[in-house]
Amino acid sequence: MNNKTDIVGVLVSEHFGLDFTDQYMRKASVYVYVFEQNKQCYVWQTNNKPSAELTEGNTYHLTAVLGNRLLGGRGILLSEVTLIGEMKIV
User: Residue 75 in contact with residue 67, Cβ under 8 Å?
Assistant: First the structure.
């Protein structure tokens, strides 16, 4: 059963060292990418930096399992993320 959802969103912010799953956003050795699609934010938090170079403001297609909504309106946590690629309008 494939429970992954397609997300085509704009990378609105990229962080290193802040744990978005922690109520107080304590420091941690994690990479965090926040994508926005239809005014909804999706948060991808990973221990390893992705091999693809991601640029803020660009649109990306990814598939992921939707998780819980994070505290403070930070968005919906993503897991099992697969980055399909960058979307470009020509």
Answer: no
